[in-house]
Amino acid sequence: YINMPKSGCTTIKNLIVRLDTGAFIDDPLTIHGRKDLMVHWKVDPDAVAARLKTDIVFTFVRHPLKRSYSCFNEKIHFTSIYAFGKVRQYIAKRYGADFTDTPSLELHRANFKRFLRFSQETIDKTNDMRRDPHWIPQSLVLAGSDRWRRPDFIGKVERFDAGMAAVLGLAGVTCDFDTPRMNEGPPPPWRYEEILDDEIREMGAALFADDLRNFGYVL
Q1: Which of 5, 84, 121, 210 has CB 3.0 to 4.6 Å from 134, enough for a Cys bridge?
Q2: What is residue 116's predicted lDDT score, i.e. its pLDDT?
């Protein structure tokens, strides 16, 4: 599995572990740090390289601008142990974001635009933040994995059940249980449809041009 943050990764990893061990773990959100259950290429590249010769390689993608808005809300706007507090502070200091628990529509929209500008400048390397897979285009994430192997299957979160059934079919794996959705963040202060305006569409079209073209999404 090629990890794609904010595109069903927690659900997918927990599903893999359930198939492997016969049980879901008690706290699904801890799956990303469970080195006892999952092998990361940074930890054991030889083991990953060996499995790449035999295993089905897959990932899931998501509508890029909706994915970005989900990341902004869960990791930047809201604060939790899983949020990016330092990034939030950076966006407030460098881009003028003003975070409050109950923002107006205008403020939340403006803060999201600042996050999109931050994401673009991260990609352009005109700020000093790293290219994190949570906010860079999914096409860039996959380009980084090409040095290992291109995926056999790229599913869409919007059609998750059908996509996962296809992956399991390719792998010859039978799944006789339902997969609950995991790590669905708290509802945003304003729905995606409410914050969307022409400027956000233009920013998204520029930032995620490759994703829109490669995965067949439209704004």
Answers
A1: 5
A2: 98
Which amino acid is it at 207?
L
Could you tell me whether strands 153-156 and 58-61 are parallel, antiparallel, or unpaired per DSSP bridges? parallel
> What's the CA gap between 20 and 31, in Å, rounded?
14
Q: State how far the Cα of 133 lies from the Cα of 142, in Å rounded to an integer.
A: 10
Residue 20: count other Cβ atoms within 10 Å of its Cβ.
Answer: 11
- Contact indicator for 60, 215 with CB cutoff of 8 Å: no
Q: Cα-flanking dihedrals φ and ψ of residue 200, to 5°?
A: -65, -40
Instruction: Give Cα separations from 211 to 18, 90, 147, 152, 156 (angstroms).
Output: 30, 26, 19, 18, 12
Query: Which amino acid, 175?
Result: C
Cα angle 203, 147, 20 (rounded to 5 degrees) comes to 95
What mean pLDDT is predicted for residues 114-122?
Answer: 98
**DSSP state at residue 80:** S
The angle subtended at Cα 82 by Cα 163 and Cα 135, nearest 5°, is 60
Residues 6+ apart with CB under 8 A from 77: 88, 99, 103, 108, 111, 188, 189
Apex CA 31: angle with CA 181 and CA 189, to 5°?
50
Q: Tell me how far apart the alpha carbons of residues 82 and 206 are, in angstroms, rounded to a whole number.
A: 28
